[in-house]
Write a sequence for this structure.
């Protein structure tokens, strides 16, 4: 809308004051909306970050700007054992936090790699070879995988609880990795199939003629070309696994508990202080903010794969 | 199992020539794997049902046997059918994985749904037929949660409107576009649990939260965001929207950028106003993308649980409950696995029916809308 109005005005410079005025108004409106929405997106993050440096009176008096109306203090981070003066001391909270952080890291990385492995193979097969499985053709098989996206976690949670008990996988990282893999596999297959379809088939035909087998072609020719798609799928899977709460809350206990479960258990108790809660929340979202800022291109690529044709 | 066709549409040539020895080796491999898996399964089944006295402590060896069987079938395929087997080997791992971890647990859940099984009780599980279904039918809290899902799904259309506006602005000629795109995407990256605290428990806190302060300043005497049913529902929806509007926005933005430039240029030359261009050209052309975005968003919405569990626990009086958060508490508070699974499986069936109908209806509607409403030349 805005771009079209703007373009028209540029072609008729200064001939019509009314249109000129309209142009200015629309620009002000556009940037006004942009700034308001930027504020909406950033304020909760800003609030959480600054609250982790507030003392109790600052929270109660609603101080917002550090240095200007409150003096930042390492209070929240001290309670986590992560402030400059406590970082070299023994801290049980920090040990707990680091363990949960490590669990989240292993579970998300393990699941993402496994999902990209399975998804890349299946995606390539679906993009290149005509399969037939009973009455199902490639499109049906693809839909079968993608349709698992609608499966709500709550349907699988309780069967998994019972099965994992029998398999001795409850409260273990391998168990969590398997669950997270099945959770992100539909999206990964979707992204990978889309990615492989954009690669020209002539390259593979040439490689096959040169005597590389199907698998040689795949490993040496196709995979390097599909790397951007794989990275996109991997990062999107990482983000989704890192944030997962429902399965982790039901399937993990003392040893394999992940960071979101720890954050949630802190909010449950009434006595918890805002500053330490803010510090934990900040520590939990900081890696994601970094990923979002640095790898935004890949996330957008992953999200839009296949959806827009 | 999976077979590749050798018809004319086959795009990559297949060299053939598999020796009979290789074929029988492959068959032997598959047979051995199958026997091993069947033996492990039978061994453990007999032990668990009490027919035999020896067995594994857990079912884990059976899982390993399944993995071995899957490997045997995959490699057997390659031996028996050569290149065609190699092609099947691309798809087989994902299929074996899905069968073991999605299909089987779902079917197992279907069985659980017909049992009375409370993990807290000592009697263990017993078959109780349709008792769970009858209980579900008469459970006002479950239907309340279902009704809430309807409200939450309706709210998706408001999210869509906001996201479309933002996507239009982001695709127009603005400065610092990349900065705004990164910032607008950020909420989607954050974990709903962290958002529950950041927004639900601190920013919307009744006494010290900045939003409560703002509300007081605007003249609301005692702001409370989670005590009145409709306000509580709205508060939850606002948080969920905050996280997921970026997803819709990104999908729509990609759609906007893929619009054919020449049509938009033509509209400009014809002197169409921004408003006309939007309703006559952009909106009709964007319909398929819009439908995809809304459907994806609804699918995510139907899984809504984390924020509700952590902020309101479904309260006040179940006003914010989603089906997932309700079943979660059903399990957490009463360890009622049988009933909880029945509720979940019923929900799954309802979702499948709903999404299927939505897919059929929207596909028809989009094609009809595009042929009747699109501007002449709109199809370029």
């Amino acid at each position: 809308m805005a771009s079209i109005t703007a373009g028209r005005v540029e072609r008729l410079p200064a001939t019509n004051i009314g249109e000129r005025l309209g142009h200015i108004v629309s620009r002000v409106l556009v940037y006004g909306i942009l700034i308001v929405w930027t504020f909406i997106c950033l304020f909760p993050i800003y609030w959480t970050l600054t609250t982790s440096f507030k003392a109790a009176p600052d929270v109660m008096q609603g101080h917002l700007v550090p240095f200007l109306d409150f003096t930042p203090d390492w209070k929240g981070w001290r309670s986590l054992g992560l402030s400059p003066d406590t970082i070299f001391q023994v801290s049980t909270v920090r040990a707990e936090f680091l363990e949960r952080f490590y669990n989240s890291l292993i579970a998300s990385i393990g699941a993402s790699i496994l999902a990209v492995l399975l998804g890349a193979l299946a995606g390539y097969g679906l993009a290149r070879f005509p399969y037939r499985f009973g009455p199902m053709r490639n499109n049906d098989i693809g839909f079968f995988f993608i349709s698992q996206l609608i499966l709500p976690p709550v349907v699988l949670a309780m069967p998994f609880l019972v099965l994992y008990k029998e398999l001795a996988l409850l409260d273990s990282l391998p168990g969590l990795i398997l669950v997270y893999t099945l959770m992100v596999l539909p999206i990964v297959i979707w992204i990978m199939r889309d990615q492989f379809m954009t690669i020209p088939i002539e390259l593979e035909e040439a490689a096959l003629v040169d005597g590389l087998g199907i698998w040689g072609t795949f490993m040496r020719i196709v995979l390097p070309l599909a790397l951007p798609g794989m990275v996109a799928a991997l990062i999107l899977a990482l983000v989704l696994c890192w944030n997962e709460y429902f399965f982790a809350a039901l399937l993990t206990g003392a040893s394999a508990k992940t960071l979101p479960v720890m954050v949630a258990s802190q909010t449950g108790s009434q006595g918890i202080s805002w500053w330490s809660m803010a510090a934990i929340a900040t520590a939990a979202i900081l890696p994601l903010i970094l990923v979002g800022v640095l790898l935004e291109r890949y996330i957008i690529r992953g999200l839009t794969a296949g959806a827009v044709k | 199992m999976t077979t590749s066709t050798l018809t004319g549409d086959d795009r990559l040539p297949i060299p053939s020539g598999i020796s009979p020895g290789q074929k029988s080796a492959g068959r032997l491999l598959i047979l051995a794997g199958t026997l091993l898996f069947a033996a492990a399964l039978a061994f453990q089944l007999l032990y668990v049902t009490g027919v035999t006295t020896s067995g594994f402590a857990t079912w884990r060896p059976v899982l390993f046997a399944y993995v071995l069987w899957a490997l045997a079938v995959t490699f057997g395929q390659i031996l028996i059918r050569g290149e065609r087997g190699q092609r099947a080997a691309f798809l087989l791992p994902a299929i074996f994985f899905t069968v073991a971890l999605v299909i089987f647990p779902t079917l197992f859940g279907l069985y659980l749904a017909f049992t009375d099984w409370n993990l807290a009780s000592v009697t263990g599980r017993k078959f109780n037929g349709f008792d769970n279904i009858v209980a579900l039918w008469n459970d006002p809290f479950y239907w309340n949660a279902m009704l809430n899902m309807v409200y939450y799904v309706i709210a998706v259309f408001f999210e869509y409107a906001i996201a479309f506006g933002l996507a239009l602005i982001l695709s127009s000629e603005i400065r610092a576009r990349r900065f705004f795109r990164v910032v607008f995407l950020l909420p989607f990256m954050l974990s709903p649990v962290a958002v529950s605290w950041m927004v639900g428990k601190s920013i919307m806190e009744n006494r010290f939260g900045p939003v409560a302060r703002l509300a007081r300043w605007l003249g609301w005497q005692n702001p409370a965001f989670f005590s009145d049913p409709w306000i509580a529902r709205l508060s939850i929806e606002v948080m969920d929207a905050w996280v997921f509007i970026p997803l819709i926005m990104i999908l729509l933005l990609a759609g906007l950028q893929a619009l054919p430039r020449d049509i938009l240029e033509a509209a400009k030359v014809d002197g169409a106003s921004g408003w006309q261009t939007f309703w006559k050209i952009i909106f009709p052309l964007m319909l398929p993308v819009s439908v995809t975005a809304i459907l994806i968003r609804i699918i995510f919405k139907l899984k809504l649980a984390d924020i509700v569990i952590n902020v309101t626990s479904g309260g006040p009086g179940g006003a914010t409950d989603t089906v997932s958060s309700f079943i979660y508490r059903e399990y957490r508070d009463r360890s009622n696995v049988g009933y909880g699974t029945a509720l979940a499986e019923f929900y799954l069936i309802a979702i499948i029916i709903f999404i299927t109908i939505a897919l059929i209806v929207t596909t028809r509607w989009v094609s009809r809308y595009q042929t009747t409403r699109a501007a002449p030349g709109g199809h370029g």
In short: The first strand of chain A starts at residue 131 and ends at 132. The longest helix of chain A spans residues 92-128. Chain A touches chain B through 110 residues (CB under 8 Å).
